[in-house]
């Protein structure tokens, strides 16, 4: 694995080479609709590529004394694990319980721990903000958040340091304003959040 920094062009080329870019009519995890979807598991099914992307997370945060890398189930589990493996620290993940993001399975974040939060793709960043809030509620020091792609119309704004390997604005519409719905294009619901009725 190369130690050289990955540029945004490198990251976009990686995603395209994996077939991660899909066109159609999709419901995003944010609930918004889009003609474009990035299927993270075309990347995450490739350990070599996942390791290279996580190495870029590590390169950007390696001097922060990180104790825990935290992600959200499902995709964030893989990213947190690989990033933590390279950093030599713990990996943990949050899950939804009763609609609320929580630490479960005996995971424990203690006051003063340095936590890096990782995520795959963000549009509005709502899930990422929830994970950060969970860590803060346990007294963690959030050293930052890192994502593979920020696909929102405007760059995501957080109250912690934020690093996106690729900034790629893609269309996203509120369901009641979606032109694809008005055209009657069949709606696809990728991802896992809908499987348990979670929003």
Give a short summary of the structure.
This protein has 199 residues and is of the alpha/beta class. Helix content is 29%, strand content 28%. The protein has a single domain, classed as Rossmann fold.
Question: How would you summarize the topology of this molecule?
Answer:
Elements: H1 8-17, E1 21-27, E2 33-38, H2 41-44, H3 47-61, E3 68-72, H4 75-87, E4 90-97, E5 100-103, E6 114-122, H5 126-137, E7 141-150, E8 162-167, H6 179-182
Parallel strand pairs: 3-4, 3-6, 6-7, 7-8
Antiparallel strand pairs: 1-2, 4-5
Helix pairs in contact: 3-4
Report the C-alpha radius of gyration, rounded. 17 Å
Major sheet characteristics = 6 strands, mixed
Helix proportion range: 25-40%
Q: For the record, give the distance between the C-alpha atoms at the N and C termini, rounded to a whole number.
A: 38 Å
Total strands: the figure is: 8
Strands across the major sheet, in which order?
5-4-3-6-7-8
The number of domains: 1
CATH class: Alpha Beta
CATH architecture: 3-Layer(aba) Sandwich
Given as residue ranges, the uncertain stretches (5+ residues, pLDDT < 50) are 194-199
Structural class: alpha/beta
Mean pLDDT over all positions: 93
Shape: globular
């Amino acid at each position: 694995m190369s130690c050289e920094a990955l540029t945004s062009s490198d990251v976009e080329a990686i995603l395209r080479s994996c077939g991660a870019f899909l066109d159609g009519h999709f419901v995003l995890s944010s609930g918004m609709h889009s003609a474009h979807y990035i299927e993270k598991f075309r990347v995450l099914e490739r350990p070599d590529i996942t390791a290279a992307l996580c190495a870029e997370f590590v390169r950007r945060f390696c001097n922060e004394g990180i104790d825990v890398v935290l992600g959200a189930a499902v995709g964030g589990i893989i990213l947190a694990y690989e990033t933590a493996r390279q950093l030599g620290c713990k990996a943990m993940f949050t899950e939804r319980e009763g609609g609320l993001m929580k630490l479960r399975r005996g995971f424990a974040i203690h006051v003063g721990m340095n936590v890096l939060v990782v995520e795959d793709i963000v549009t509005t960043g709502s899930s990422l903000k929830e994970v950060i809030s969970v860590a803060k509620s346990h007294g963690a020091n959030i050293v930052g958040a890192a994502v593979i792609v920020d696909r929102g119309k405007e760059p995501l704004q957080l109250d912690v340091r934020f690093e996106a390997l690729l900034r790629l604005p893609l269309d996203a519409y509120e369901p009641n304003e979606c032109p694809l719905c008005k055209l009657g294009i069949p709606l696809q619901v990728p991802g896992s959040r809908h499987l348990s009725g979670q929003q």
